[in-house]
Amino acid sequence: MSAEGDEAIQRLIALMARLPGLGPRSARRAVLQLVKKKGALLLPLAEAMREVAETARECVNCGNIATRDLCEICADPKRRTGQICVVEDVADLWAMERAQVFRGRYHVLGGTLSALDAVGPEELRIPRLVERVREEEASEIILALAATIDGQTTAHYIADQLPGTSVTSLAQGVPVGGELDYLDDGTITAALKARRAL
Amino acid sequence: MSAEGDEAIQRLIALMARLPGLGPRSARRAVLQLVKKKGALLLPLAEAMREVAETARECVNCGNIATRDLCEICADPKRRTGQICVVEDVADLWAMERAQVFRGRYHVLGGTLSALDAVGPEELRIPRLVERVREEEASEIILALAATIDGQTTAHYIADQLPGTSVTSLAQGVPVGGELDYLDDGTITAALKARRAL
Ligand SMILES: [Zn+2]
Ligand SMILES: [Zn+2]
User: Fold this and answer.
1) Structural contact between residues B170 and B196, judged by C-beta atoms closer than 8 angstroms
2) Of A150, A158, A164, A174, which has the most beta carbons under 10 Å away?
3) Domain A7-55 classified CATH 1.10.8.420?
4) Global ipTM
5) Ranges for the Toprim domain (chains A, B) (predicted)?
């Protein structure tokens, strides 16, 4: 046997250690905690994971996580149409939602253009964005992308694909090289209010 | 809806955030990772958790995590009998095992005596240790407890319960106030070799 007991425990530790933010040591601590709190934590967690595995999918419209074809935001009639906020990933969408300042809809690119990693527009959800702008007669596209080179390259590429549409971008408050998901709500609110035309 | 999408996702994030070492932000990151790697990570993790929940229990002999009545160490005929290493918790047992220097068996106390937290001998697995020493005719009890006040109080209490039995304690290398699970293998090896009689 190995140091960490039987196979099922070892397998659980190895899988937990693959989660972002957990190394082998914290994975071991987490598993001991789980075994101690079998009813209060381990079983509910296993069940929540199974449920998410069965239901989670990509929203066919915007790329957000959804449990049906359309995510809760795309399906919500109270969300303003005609204003689409473009984010790199779902973590950024969640950060925007926590700021509670944007009432339109989203478009999740799934990454940024990257010459280095050979990520082109077809790898992202850019063609679908162009379609949506036409279909939904969007009046404003707000780019909430990171202030990195790849983020800004992506922003300019999207603006070029949408001539005649107002394309703005979060400006004030997004630190150079900073990622959206690390910002506090106030900074996101300020950046949204000070958005400027590209 | 809340910022983090539908109920199942929110529930999973809230449960993950209760794991040691994960806060709300890293729990969100972890859940997004899980959804992205549904087949490679989320489903195997849900399954491993279910399996551990169904099989994991306490070894009736030593208190280690087990999948049967006896843990793999107590059931292993190649482990030396007559030498019992006493640890506070299973994380410490795993740390000892990783050092690969001890070939006897263990006894997991489940804590240390603590006047402050009102933890007495009956709350720990001390009466069972005294029984085992008699039953297994143990010739040496090695106390691998933290060099904290409660750890040392516990060590002396155990030594008092076992007159006529050789009770040693890890010595050199365990930093004052230090916890065993943080030590590297070499330090544990040195401490075991330099153990001294109480
Ligand atoms: Zn959607
Ligand atoms: Zn055992």
Assistant:
1) no
2) A158
3) yes
4) 0.79
5) 82-175
